[in-house]
Amino acid sequence: MKTLYLLVPLAPLAGAILAGLFGRALGRAGAHTVTILGVLVSFLASCWIFADVLEGNTFNGTVYTWLTSGGVTLEIGFLIDRLSALMMVVVTFVSLMVHVYTIGYMAEDPGYQRFFSYISLFTFSMLMLVMANNFLQLFFGWEAVGLVSYLLIGFWYTRPTAIHANLKAFLVNRVGDFGFILGIALVLAYFGSLDYAQVFAEAPALAAPVTLICLALFVGAMGKSAQFPLHVWLPDSMEGPTPISALIHAATMVTAGIFMVARMAPLYELSATARSVVLVIGGITALFMGLVALTQYDIKRVVAYSTLSQLGYMTVALGASAYSAAIFHLMTHAFFKAVLFLGAGSVIIALHHEQDMRRMGGLKAAMPVTYWTFLLGAISSAGIPGFAGFFSKDAIIEAARHATIPGAGFAYLCVLACVFVTAAYTFRMVFMAFHGAPRYDAHRPPHESPAVVTVPLVLLAIPSVLAGWLVGRFLPVDSAWDFVVHGLVSLPFWLALAGIAAAAILYRRPSSLPKRIAMRLGPLYAVVERKYGFDELYAWLFGAGARVLGTGLWKAGDQTFIDGLMVNGSARVVGWFSGIVRLAQTGILNTYAFLMLFGILAGVTWVIWRFWS
Amino acid sequence: MTHAPLLSLAIWVPIVAGLLVLAAGGDRNAPLQRALALAGALLGFLVTLPLYAGFDLAQPGMQFVELAPWIPQFNVHYHLGVDGISVLFVLLNSFITVLVVIAGWSVIGSRVGQYYASFLMLSGVMNGVFAALDGVLFYVFFEATLIPMFIIIGVWGGANRVYAALKFFLYTLAGSLLMLVALLYLYGKSGSSFAILDWHALPLSLTAQTWLFFGFLLAFAVKVPMWPVHTWLPDAHVEAPTGGSVVLAAIMLKLGAYGFVRFTLPILPDASRELAWLMIALSLVAVVYIGLVALVQTDLKKLIAYSSISHMGFVTLGFFVFNAWGVEGGLVQMISHGFVSAALFLCVGVLYDRMHTRAIADYGGVANTMPRFASLMMLFAMANCGLPATSGFVGEFMVIMGAMQKNFWLAFAAATTLVFGAAYTLWMYKRVVFGAVANAQVAALKDLNPREALVLGLLAAAVLAMGVYPLPFTEVMHASVNELLRHVAQSKL
After folding, report:
1. What ipTM describes this predicted complex?
2. Is A178 in Cβ contact with B405 (below 8 Å)?
3. Structure pTM?
């Protein structure tokens, strides 16, 4: 079994190395064959392992010793339980779909092999993250997925916007990692171990500052899972090619923070304060990022803000101690968001890299497969009972309603209001892109994408519709059917319908209503449309601020004070002193003779005076 | 003495090779000189390998000891030996020397013999610093490193090389004069012994320890360099030829840090504990202040020089938190920085050889014309940011772990390097490598030649190997570091 566990991450790694180092020799077909093969092997092995875990077989063991110091042994090792096995299946499945989709999407790109190498490397890193049995390896995977994300956002490295976005993403994530590593260091300092099992076992009895540890770790989660106020990098990450927006910035990497907190549940359960913070942050992210999605026109940005909002939902679930619900939503979201992203990508390619929804419309007829899969993803996302998104979202709303810790009321209101918002922006997208009259360039009519694109869409749409019926595996419900029936008579369903209706009224046909509403809302609308001004604030505060501070320290500290005053100053003092001494060096013999005589006289006088008395 | 005099070989093989290169005549014999230099450097590296292979992990004390009288009148000995703290630096130094010889192969066209002789002799002398167990011998080697480096900067350096060479020389010389006084005081106090290991056991009053502490501090702090005596380094790096920068960053800075663990901590444990706050404060200033200064540099070499100072701040921080994570982390960081800074300066050298400019603004879009170079430099940039699975992570991680065991806020301040380090490194990378082709010169760039690819490839392998599997590096240190920590914890009053 252990060999099989090893095979899961190593197969994609092998693919990545082959495609990365020998891409030219392998050629395009060779590169996508080896990487897809690697991920396929990994996916099949993950399924096998998942089945095995469901039978009750778990594993916690070491692969090799990374380092020893201070009497502590740090290891690379795997923890295979239901949580990690599920994540492995989700990650490898979405990754496999994205690999196939990429054949079509990147067909004309000169960096074809490089792209396949990166996404396989990503798959490896993500698998190491979810399979870790200790904090160190978690951090390894954590940073490695960040690196690949950086490389992929900047994949088209000649575009100024792309290389700005990837730097921003990396640095914002680093702020999160800053908190994360402090959390890890606190764990090591208090527990003397970074092993999950040991730490979780000792946590209840040990007088460790659990709240501080949890908050520090959560800062890491806020970075990776793009929670307010570290959310700013995710919308910009859309500069990368669409397949990675689906894989990394929707389905898998951004959920690493959610996964991490769920993994650390035994610690978070010890600190209600930390969970309150998690709840409030999640609520803010869910509602306020969802509102931004209503105002954007770039189809990828709408999906990106939608991702932020959905991550907010998962965070609320974590704060409400509903870890299973969070992971359940993580899984359903991975499917329906991958559909939405890849569908958006299919549209973008069909329209020759057009991303503005104001120049789309009426694509329903030209792209039926894309339309229907996108629609199913949208329904699932809006949380219509029976579809996957409904089950997980409803579970979260219920959990928030029943939570009693401070902040729960606020979070509940946020997620409830966000149901309306989610349905509204999702269907705004459906109507603007696929319905109504065409607004694209009529001379270059769109065509349905090739099979390598549509087949993954269909394969992902199936679980986006059906995965919810697995609800019994995640949550203690008697019957999924009752769950649906109950959903039909509860408030969120009506809110979702209202959202869809609002979108239909405003966007189904050309209408001046949206503009009038925006005008009426005035500055409020502008604030939301400008994403609350966080980008500008951060650019001013941290971007310009750090440069001003750095320049100040350099010019005033290094150049003026240390070099000017101390170093060259002491040289000047020496120079000044030697200038005075130099006065004596006249080179005139008479002066020397006179001075010598004077010296001898003085010396003799001193000796006589000294010894006489 | 039953074993081969490996340490003597490590010191004298490069020096003799250097003399041979010099003896091979002028520039018309340059091919022969290059071959001789490479052979000498390789042989010098080979003789250090048994030091690791034959190293006894369980033994905390000195190994491969050589002892012979040198100046009997003053009880000065030719006394060599390495423990778990120093052995890796002998290997690192000899390894880097090989790379420097290869890197200068076709770049250095004038005074080839003298160039290579300087580097080979410098290499031997620096091995002497790491292996010396006699105070006088240490001092002689320590000071002798200045001469070849002074020549390297002064002869093969850039436009402003004389100012930089002098600043480097005077700064470091001034620093080490007080160390000489400290050594002589210890000689007198210990009843005429120059044996460093005797001094480890020598009882000293707190006042004496404090005076000695500052005597050593100035010498070592200048070399590291610690804030605020760091300003010679950016100037020296900017003017030094690529090979000079590589050796300066990879090895010479380590001489100062090594001094702290060989002299300051074990000889002056009480003063070290009393003044740890000062050392920690200076280290953190280096991490934060220098990190910000590095951000705004417009010169590639200056940026990497400031980055070096910031990274060396981690080393001194680790040493003065007095726990195994910190001290071993500091040592690991020294080795990693040896690889990473060498690699980054070599990368700048690759660019400079083609474009003859170090200004970041003159670059942009290098990835378009030099994709292989861009990937390797990405790896080194990430190692400089301390990304896991690169060597840069290991040391930073260990020092942060060590700092946390002392105090939360120490770790907090140290961990800011995750943000600062990434900011200055990747912003530089973005401006130089990413983007559209900036100008005709960039458009005409040729990717790495096999020689450059070999040198950078070896360093890349080292950086990755150490990041993925650091155990072989740290397990060598354990016994000696534990012994050192035991020593620091014991009062000498």
Report:
1. 0.89
2. no
3. 0.89
